[in-house]
Recover the amino acids of this structure.
């Protein structure tokens, strides 16, 4: 309800809250109120809600969305931080999700590579004992 009141105020729609908690407005403002209410509802419940365990992925998604001028909001829930964003279409959603996954993979790879001591790991050997030849990680 607070979000609707704030949006009505930003749009300059006069309203009041009655004793029962309902928002009251002039009948001639009906069309504007319905439009604003739909936008607020979409912002609250629509879009994509994404949760990433690592701060780096969350920060990357927020910076990516900001750099593209896309609206998003952060929701703090009992199970952590969620980012709700609003892609224009499915292909934009997939593109951004792939970029976040790729970024996450690159960060993990960089972290693993920084822990690797190439001088102490002979070429063609594995850092993981018992790893099959095709799954071995080599510095």
């Amino acid at each position: 309800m607070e979000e609707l009141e704030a949006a009505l105020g930003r749009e300059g729609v006069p309203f009041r809250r009655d004793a029962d908690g309902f928002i009251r407005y002039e009948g001639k403002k009906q069309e504007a109120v319905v439009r604003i209410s739909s936008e607020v509802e979409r912002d609250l419940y629509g879009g994509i809600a994404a949760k990433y365990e690592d701060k780096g992925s969350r920060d990357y998604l927020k910076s990516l969305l900001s750099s593209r001028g896309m609206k998003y909001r952060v929701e703090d829930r009992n199970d952590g931080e969620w980012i709700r964003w609003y892609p224009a279409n499915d292909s934009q959603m997939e593109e951004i999700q792939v970029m976040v996954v790729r970024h996450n993979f690159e960060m993990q790879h960089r972290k693993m590579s920084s822990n690797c001591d190439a001088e102490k790991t002979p070429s063609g050997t594995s850092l993981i004992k018992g790893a099959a030849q095709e799954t071995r990680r080599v510095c």
Observations:
- The two ends are 56 Å apart (CA to CA).
